[in-house]
Amino acid sequence: MVCAAVLLAATATPAMATTGVVAADTAWVLTSTALVLFMTLPGLAAFYAGLVKRKNLLSVLMQCFAIACIQTVLWAAVGYSLSFSTVGMEEGVRGLASFVGGLDKAFLSGISMSSVTGTIPEALWVMFQMTFAIITPALMVGSVVERMKFNAVMIYSTLWSIFVYFPFCHMVWGGAGGLMADLGVLDFAGGIVVHITAGIGALVAAIVCGPRKDNQMASGNLTLTFLGTGMLWVGWFGFNGGSAAAAGAEAAFAILATQISAATAAMVWMVLDIMESGKASLIGIVTGAVAGLATITPASGFVGPVGGACLGAIGAITCRYFSTDIKTRLGYDDSLDVFGVHGVGGFVGTCLLGVFAAPMFGGFGTTPMLQQTIIQVAAAIATVAYTAPVSWILLKITGAITGGLRIPG
Description:
This protein has helices at residues 2-17, 23-51, 57-84, 122-139, 150-173, 179-182, 191-209, 222-241, 249-277, 282-296, 305-330, 338-356, 369-402; strands at 116-117, 120-121. By secondary structure, the protein is mainly α. The chain has a two-stranded antiparallel ribbon with strand order 1-2. A hairpin with a 2-residue loop joins strand 1 and strand 2 (120-121).
């Protein structure tokens, strides 16, 4: 009995040291963190690599891997602090702290075994959010494959994270006192923070870099793209479900809406392909699934199954139109449709969140539909208005540093 008592005391000590931590929530966010990292390595890397020409396959894998490493160090050094520092923040009061965090948490200063965020250890929250900071700039790789220098991709993604991603992460998710949080903007898992910002940053990069010499789709390994899509889809459960930061009904509904949206979007895209060309395609159905996943992301914790299905269908139709018709008409070379799928999907999901979060559609919103929709549309437009010129400036700075953005020849 004495041995049992000693063993019990030993196993209880860590839990007692972190008062407020809920084991179930911690276990779920730990799992979600692994799932979201799995989305980039190897999910997104494989998805992109399979779509490019075989000679460029390894360069895409290298870019995604290197971005994951750089963003990890950047997030630990200043990213977490600039995103989640609450020093100087006060609800309803506008100041620098409304737009970006301070440096009091630089190099993860002050985070200890007893630090808690909500019901999970703060160290886990750091790691979970780090995986978002990794995949967001990695998404932009798809718009400039086969022509942008490796060092230019690394410098641009680093500068972009500092001047675009971290401020939006703070304004939306930094808590009371953050500009968009105070305005009532809803973004459950990253429609604004991840998809709109990355989509616009990617579009501007594609335009500034110019088109590839041969910008026809020549997929080198669709098996790799199929596997990458599966990894992204499964990982998205951690992306959206983990954003509840707790193991409960909110996470469950987020995953349910995510699954329904992705499946609906994939089917709609496939049907549209058949109507247009007479046959379905693997590229079409997997792109449709990703479009559904991107569209549901901002709304995943606020809508029910009906909202998930509607957003998936609308997202597929809209993203397909932008990825085919609009891209062809305007002539920009968004190589792997980062803007067409992620940017447009995130924008549509953010704007329609106010509609499908309404109880009449089985959603869980509490703000009147029209009021929330106006807030969401304004936030989405403001995100585009900021991200586009800042991305252009950062690309010009990057080009000056690297002696041009494009690979010679």
